[in-house]
Design brief:
The complex is a heterodimer. By secondary structure, chain A is mainly β. Chain A is built from no helices and eleven strands. In chain A, strands 2, 4, 5, 9, 10 and 11 form a six-stranded mixed beta sheet that branches. In chain A, strands 1-3-8-7-6 form a five-stranded antiparallel beta sheet, with no helix packed on it. In chain A, a hairpin with a 5-residue loop joins strand 9 and strand 10. The relative contact order of chain A is 0.35. By secondary structure, chain B is mainly beta. Chain B is 0% helix and 50% strand. In chain B, the strands form three sheets. In chain B, strands 2, 5, 6, 7, 10, 11 and 12 form a seven-stranded mixed beta sheet that branches. A three-stranded antiparallel beta sheet of chain B has the order 3-9-8, with no helix packed on it. A two-stranded antiparallel sheet of chain B has the order 1-4. The chains are: A mainly beta, B mainly beta. Chains A and B meet through strand 5 and strand 10 of A and strand 6 of B.
Amino acid sequence: QKEVEQNSGPLSVPEGAIASLNCTYSDRGSQSFFWYRQYSGKSPELIMSIYSNGDKEDGRFTAQLNKASQYVSLLIRDSQPSDSATYLCAVNQGTDKLIFGTGTRLQVFP
Amino acid sequence: DVKVTQSSRYLVKRTGEKVFLECVQDMDHENMFWYRQDPGLGLRLIYFSYDVKMKEKGDIPEGYSVSREKKERFSLILESASTNQTSMYLCASSLKGTGVSTNEKLFFGSGTQLSVL
């Protein structure tokens, strides 16, 4: 079992819709959770971090964490073509290093 | 803004060559990391360092070594390059964190696409 799992996609959504990206992790001791966005040919950049169960909102982005289900998700409201990218889920297991998922490719079409 | 600079964007080397990948950050970050990124495999940690002259193995250290003689510079060394080391190499840095996570925001360099022929 992979430590951090994501559906590779592509996830295709129309402009203006809500995009829902999901991630599961295997280590129950994981403490910190991150979403990175990576445009094609570019480096990853952090867009959200979440540490406690529940929702965390930042503009059009909402991160959701459920530690009991070992599940973290990212919702993007009012999706724009500029949101088209690969979204990487990353988990800190408390060992001072991040474990990344393989990423979900999101395509937002006009 | 934090800047993480990798010395080369594209690099082509021959099998058996010794390869040096250089990374420099300008924000006095304590932590530095080397990842490789391959299609379908995602980002995998090779080595990391929390201080000068200190290094820790990541998940795939075999065939690699690192050097951190100065706080701002973290070098990845391929002792004898092989074709299976053809990959995108990403350097990252972060501040030493507090509390739950010592691994807060990672700042990535632009990457080095290494091809070993």
